[in-house]
Amino acid sequence: MKSLEKYIGYEIYPYSFKDGNDDGYGDFKGLLSKIDYLYDLGVNLLWICPFYKSPMDDNGYDVSDYYQINETLGTMDEFKQIIHECHSRGMKVMIDFVLNHLSDEHPWFQEAIKDKNSPYHDFFIFKDPVMKDGKKCLPNNWEGFFSESVWTYVEEIDQYYFHIFSKKMPDLNWDNPKLRQEIYKVARFYLDMGVDGFRLDAIAHLAKDVTFSDSELPVNEKGIVLDTAKFSNREELYGYLKEFKEEVLDHYDCITIGEVGGCASCEEALRYVDREKGYITMAFNFDTCWENGAYGDYNKKDKDIKVNVKNMKSLFKKWYDACHENADMPIYWVNHDHPRVMSQYGNVKYHKQSAKMLITTLLFMYGLPFIYQGEEIGMTNVDYEDLDDFKDVSAQNFIRSHKDFVSEEVMLRFLRRTSRINARTPIAWSNGEYAGFSNVEPYVKVVGNYPTINVEDNLKDEDSIYKYYQKAIALRKEISSTIYHGSFELLDKENPYLFMYEKKDEEHCYWVISSFSTKNHRVQLPKEYDVLLANHKVVTRHGELIVHPYDSYVIEVKEN
Ligand code: NOJ
User: Fold this and answer.
1) Which CATH superfamily is domain 486-559 in?
2) What residues line ligand 1, using a CB cutoff of 6 Å?
3) Phi, psi (deg, nearest 5) at residue 79
4) Is the pTM of this model over 0.70?
5) pLDDT, tens only, 488-531
6) How far apart are the C-alpha atoms of 255 and 380, rounded to whole Å?
7) Which among 282, 348, 408, 527 has most CB atoms closer than 10 A?
């Protein structure tokens, strides 16, 4: 995959994509039945989230056997068929590789907790309890990402093990060369099978502060604190990646995108992805995913959530400035860990219009675009009324740790706008029962608006979001050279309502004009131009474009 210029990524969360065998879970059979749907959309690089054998504490990110397919999803033969069907259509397949941790049900961990002298004990991170007033206490005050301590006690060996995610997901000890070799074997196994690359899960966290000293940050009511610096982008990590690259990745024509989360600055990210000196192809950071203030204070009312357009633009620009000369970069609104972009940055009152605007804004910037499943029909956040419906380990940990002092109503409002479940509801394929996802009740409840927001209706309607995506993707591929190699300048960058930019090379100049506003605005047009894509009839007055709520335009500037 020498040049990434013409690739359009699409993320598949397989358990929620399409149920092909009526057990309520999405599966490979369902996915196989929809490859043409994806091909027709125009995407040509699939990122498939974890499919390995798993007890499903974290929906497959807790792997109990890398070499087996989780039963609910199907078989290895079906997986190979997916690769084959994609390749025969010129589409690539990138799989999610979970290498920071695995499931506590993985045989390596089971061995490790039986016996401190087992070679597998050193595949994980264990610490003795700290004795305080004759009581066994946690080795330090670090909190993990899922609202609990990073330490869990194992009585049999009288030690704590380390996990930055759920307690069923012990972290691997990358300091151990034997462990690293086992991980490389897994990578080779899938690359030899024909996959085109990896999305490397939680890669920023492979190395920890091995002093394991307490964080100096203020602790919460449970005496712990999330101090990501203790286990993110640490020096040793780059050595591990160098080895992974030299021993495995360099021997294949593959793409690698590391998830570096919100924990890496541009400088740190470049250490991973610099074309000359880096180790992987690109990095997913989440800077632009959180620009509406939905997170943080759970007491915040929905009416106080506002998209910060100015800041969002400057963040896209910041990453462009850092990367475009030295590295490829992915561009995306959200993924399976975030709320739906329609609810995050769009406006359900302007459903079609804002969905079309969002994809236009994204597609014509530098980078490899990733669409998250369901965005192409404008799927929204959940309308759940019951906290039990938020079937996700991080939401349930949040509920458990806040229920004594936060009302149900507040938790419900907060989770409806921030929970990962928003992205994980079954794809609405039709307005039939269970949204056409399955013939039985799905493992996660469907969103209530599927009678109007579904694929079937989109395919019938020439003006639908899906049909617009097709056009926009085709245009992006057609003009990809300027988009990938041309300059990128924000236009009217202080404007808090309009996201406008210019892409330019020696031959072409394009403007993208997008509105995140519910009011009309005016934009001075160039002297001569062609409209290449628009989600609204073009209305001009005295040389100005009238930009209606959530309008979006791509124009080619002929003379300015
Ligand atoms: C990041 C993944 O995107 C998320 O879904 C998962 O819970 C954690 N890593 C742990 O694997």
Assistant:
1) Golgi alpha-mannosidase II (2.60.40.1180)
2) 58, 61, 98, 165, 201-202, 259, 336-337
3) -65, -45
4) yes
5) 999 999 999 999 999 999 999 999 999 999 999 999 999 999 99
6) 30
7) 282
